Amino acid sequence: MVRFILNRLAQAALSLFGVLTVVFFAVHIAGDPVRLLVPQNSSAADIARLSRQLGLDRPLVDQYWTFLVHAAHGNFGYSFVLDQPALGIVLTRFPNTVELAAGALVFALSLAIPIGILSAVFRGKWIERALMPVILIGQSMPVFWSGILLILIFAVHWHVFPSSGQGGLRALILPSVTLGSLSLATIARMIRGSFLEHLNREYVRTAKAKGASASRVLLRHVFRNAFLPVLTVLGMETANLLGGAVIAEEIFAWPGIGQLTVQAVQSLDFPVVEAVVLFAATIYILANLAVDLLYGVVDPRLRHEGNQQ
Amino acid sequence: MTIAINQPWGPEVPLSRAKRAGKLRKLLRWWPLAILGIAAFAAAFPYLLAPLNPDLTHLNARLQGPGFRADGLKFLLGTDDLGRDVLSRVIWGVRVSVVVATTAVFAAGVFGGAMGIIAGVRKRILGPVIMRIADMVLSIPFFLLAILVVAALGPNLRNLVIVLALVRWPRYARVAYAQTLEASEREFVRAAVALGARQLRVVRRHILPEVLPALVVIATLEVGLMVIYEAALSFIGLGVQPPTPSWGSMLSTGQQFVASAWWIATFPGLALFLLVVAVNRLGDLIRDLLDPKGRI
To answer: How far apart are CA A285 and CA A280, in angstroms?
Structure first.
């Protein structure tokens, strides 16, 4: 188990290093930000001075090294546009992303669990046939279309919910539904698959033979076993949602880190791009790591296997 | 006819009719092919289907609803903010989606598949290195990665394909790697190696045929995703640049006018949705055919 944890930690560290490298080089072939910052008719001397000030005239390897050292300290420099520490901007935006992710997950789980279980238990019955299209639609509905449709119906037509911005529970509902529908489909599919696999197992037959009620068999016996693989998917979905729901935030003008990414990329605001992508990647990698480690806690068999190795 | 015809004690049903119904139902399962056929035709010959020039602006017919007539022209699905025909732009927009999605899947599949097979054959140093890189790419939130790389390389059709292939190849590599390892243990591969066949020949004649079906299954499941990502990148302005019609950029325009002109966003979105549903459903059908045990 210790070895497994160390292995996973090393892998996570390696991933982070990879992200750092990719981000640095991608950002530096993107173009010269100085030209965007200075007025149009400024002299070559002015441009050179500003690039020196921002450290953009030094050799690339040199800049890369400084970047790594600074990144390790959480220092990504100042935003070119807002003149504030880049990481600070990301951190002020992050709670909004968390709020949206939580909303989306609550929506997704509250529907995915019943849909997944019912479609597995009633396999081949009309209930399954009615539920499967929900999954297929959720999986195929592009977020940016469902978002616009929801705005059209509930904000423009019926005036039930606000069409954009943040503020209170009412503003959270449309973005959560939009963002959560893809997770809903993925999780429901996973639950269905896992339940189908477990429903024919011998322990289920034994439990039934002992006279346990159907609901007891499902909830106490099958659910505990079948939910394990779902946990992995759940972790990945959480990681995805926290990593910045770029499109959903863009549509609903939700001030999270996804929207920040788009704004920063469009204005070539290097420090913020670096900070936000790295931050999101770190969250994503850590969330996945947490799921893997959690597995050992939830499933004692894995712990045992690890000890034997 | 929902009578249980398979049960010997069931009521008598004329067999031919039941058989025909069964056949028809089997045939209807392939409905995605019809949608994809239309999409492929529209992508190849958009000028045959589109009623008007998709780039031509009609300044006296801006933001007009479906069925609007002006200058002796009929705008069946309305016009956008520049007075361009929405229907024609939706039809021309298939092109970008289909071209980007298929080439990106092909590029990622070939590259990832090759990497996976190499990793499975060269187990010492090269293999672990390749798979570590694949794991690393998979552990980066890939929409962010895609945004970053497109922003760096500049948004155009070619770069869009490169980026999508770059972020998706590990998925194929993992599957190809697993299948190669499995195949290497099979007796006919061991026999070929024992007979002195060279590695390249073993890979080409014996391993590749084992790996290919798995790659095809992954590829069909990936096409829908690529269609969505192309549209998503176009939606935030990092895809194909205007005036080339693309569903993503049409949706982005549509969002600006959502309160006044619902048709601009609704129809390209509907087209996108239908295409993705059809591709995903076809992917499931192909998986059932090639991988009945659900191993992949």
So the answer is: 9
Residues 6 or more apart whose CB falls under 8 angstroms from that of B200 comprise none
The average pLDDT across A106-127 equals: 90
How many CB pairs (< 8 A) connect A and B? 127
- Tokens standing for residue B53: 């020039």
Kindly state the percentage of chain B with pLDDT values over 70: 93
Reported as a pLDDT band with limits 50, 70 and 90, residue A307 is: very low
Kindly indicate the confidence band of residue B15, based on its pLDDT and cuts at 50, 70 and 90: low
Domain map of chain A by residue range? 86-308
User: Which of A139, A247, A273 has the CB atom closest to B148's CB atom?
Assistant: A273
Query: Is A274 an interface residue toward B (CB < 8 Å)?
Result: no
Please tell me the distance from the alpha carbon of residue A87 to that of residue A92, in angstroms, as a whole number. 9
User: B152 vs A144: CB contact, 8 Å cut-off?
Assistant: no
**The pLDDT of residue B294:** 61
Quote the minimal CA–CA distance from A97 to chain B in Å: 15
Rounded to the nearest angstrom, the gap between the alpha carbon of residue A209 and the centroid of all alpha carbons in its chain is 43
B249, B242 in Cβ contact below 8 A?
A: yes
Nearest CA in chain A to B258: A152
- Distance of residue A210 Cα from the nearest chain B Cα, in angstroms: 32
Q: Give the pLDDT band (50/70/90) at residue A38.
A: low
For residue A166, give every residue at least 6 positions away whose Cβ sits within 8 Å of its Cβ, in sequence order, or none: A96, A99, A172, A254, A255
Q: Which of A26, A239, A285 sits opposite B148 (nearest CB)?
A: A26
| pLDDT confidence tier of residue B202, bands split at 50, 70 and 90 | confident
Amino acid B3: pLDDT: 46
For residue B232, give the nearest of A141, A247, A284 by CB distance: A247
Ramachandran bin of B63, using left for φ above 0, alpha for ψ from -120 to 50, beta for the remaining angles:
left
Residue range A86-308 forms a domain whose CATH class is mainly alpha
| Cα A247–Cα A253–Cα A256 angle in degrees, nearest 5 | 75
Higher pLDDT, A98 or A83: A98
Name the residue among A141, A156, A284 with its Cβ closest to that of B141.
A284
ipTM value for the complex: 0.80
pLDDT tens column, B54-87: 888 888 878 888 888 877 788 888 888 888 888 9
How many angstroms separate the CA of residue B52 from the nearest CA in chain A? 25
Contacts of residue A135, defined as CB under 8 A and 6 or more positions apart, other chains included, come to: A115, A119, A185, A188, A189, A192
Which of residues 18 through 37 in chain A touch B, CB cutoff 8 A?
18-19, 22-23, 26-27, 29-30
Q: CA–CA separation, A244 vs A254, rounded Å? A: 11
- The structural architecture, per CATH, of the domain B73-295 is Orthogonal Bundle (1.10)
Residue that is written with structure tokens 């972020």 in the block: B167
pTM over 0.90: no
| Ramachandran class of A110: left when φ > 0, alpha when ψ lies in -120 to 50, beta otherwise | alpha
